HTH tetR-type domain-containing protein (Candidatus Viadribacter manganicus), 186 residues
Amino acid sequence: MTADGRRQRSDASRRKIALAMLDLLREGEADPSADLVAERAGVGRRTVFRLFSDMDGVFREMHAIMASRLTPEFARSFVANTWRERLDELVERRAKAFEQMLPIKTAADARRYTSNFLRTEHKKITRLQREALIAVLPANLAKGDMLEALDLAMSFETWRRLRYEQELSIKQAQAVLRRILGALVD
């Protein structure tokens, strides 16, 4: 067997393990064991520990998968013409992304304070979300307390609260966000 073949098999196993972990988190398994992840991925427990020295490695792989899925949605141009319409479009985009991220980011946030990787990625994602919001807003709203209020309203943490603690449907959560944003900018 060639080194390239072993590398391809290892890469495929890493991806299967990360996808298995993503699936388990989506199904509500907040902290799946290595045995459960291995079983779901169809690999041995030893393979999980051979390919990933720690949970950060699994989260890095999951992050890469999620980024490849979500980046195209955020990178595409806005269809809307006015800033208010673009803000509404941003609500739609974030709702879709946040729904995909909800169980995964919740699990990552539980580990964030013990993981340099997760802390760094959280800061990066938060910064990118803020920059996307600023790009949509007119200059007079993209600064000071107004920016801070809008950034908070459009945050993942707000979405998680609406969906988990307040148990709102996706449509209800979007309606609440639109009402908050409307109250802030009108």
Summary: The chain has a mean pLDDT of 90.
